[in-house]
Amino acid sequence: MRIGYKCIVQNVGLTKSKIRKDKKYWVNSADYQSSLEGSFVRLALVATINTEKLHLYTLRKFDLKTGPQKAKKLNGKLLEYIESFFSKPKLIDVFAKESDDAISKSIKLNRSSRLKRLEKANLKPKLVPVTSYVYERNPDVVAEALYRADGICERCSGAAPFYRKSNNSPYLEVHHIVPLSNGGEDSLSNVLALCPNCHRELHFGKGI
After folding, report:
1. Do 45 and 106 belong to one domain?
2. Which residues are the signal sequence here (predicted)?
């Protein structure tokens, strides 16, 4: 079991006459009757979330005592952990990390095991909804960096590898030297126009 949904509060102080009856989902009828006391909150779904970061066995490391059947007030380490998770600039990074981990595990398998798994694999990948936050970059910074580079990578000095289909311009990618997520500025002094190879190396390479 894991936290699977991110919601916002729509209404508070609702009486039991305003809520949907869900007795059939309760194992203990006494608990159900007890749940009808007091007032209720109506939530609206914002996003469906699927990550091991919010699995119960992970949350227990942050003082979650048991799998909650009812609403639970968050505090202490548990509240701090969940808040920090949802406040990350890009939730999609979590899924990228999990994908990288899965690939690393696959590489460590012997090849015959991997080929057997491929024979049984689903050829239509599952569509997973994610919520992400991205920085709204200044298009003038991008345009001016590309103009400055004039089709030449500002790291390796090689020519752009191909031309864009959309406008026949040399294909370079504008990279922030200090990432925006680390407080870097969206300015000409903090960007380089790079060929895709150099750009990927800066993000994923081991460095020199």
Report:
1. no
2. none
The CA R_g of the chain, rounded to the nearest whole Å, is 25
Question: Is the same domain home to 82 and 92?
Answer: no
The answer for 147, left when phi > 0, alpha when psi is -120 to 50, beta otherwise, is alpha
Its domain, for residue 74, covers 5-86
Q: Looking at 134, 163, 196, which one is the last position of a domain? A: 134
What total number of domains does the chain contain? 3
Residues 82 and 125 in one domain: no
Q: What are the pLDDT tens digits along the chain (208 aa)?
A: 566 666 777 777 888 787 777 777 778 888 888 877 777 777 777 666 666 677 777 777 777 776 655 666 677 777 777 766 655 444 444 455 556 677 778 888 888 988 898 999 888 877 766 655 677 889 999 999 999 999 999 999 999 999 999 889 999 999 999 988 888 899 999 999 999 999 999 988 876 5
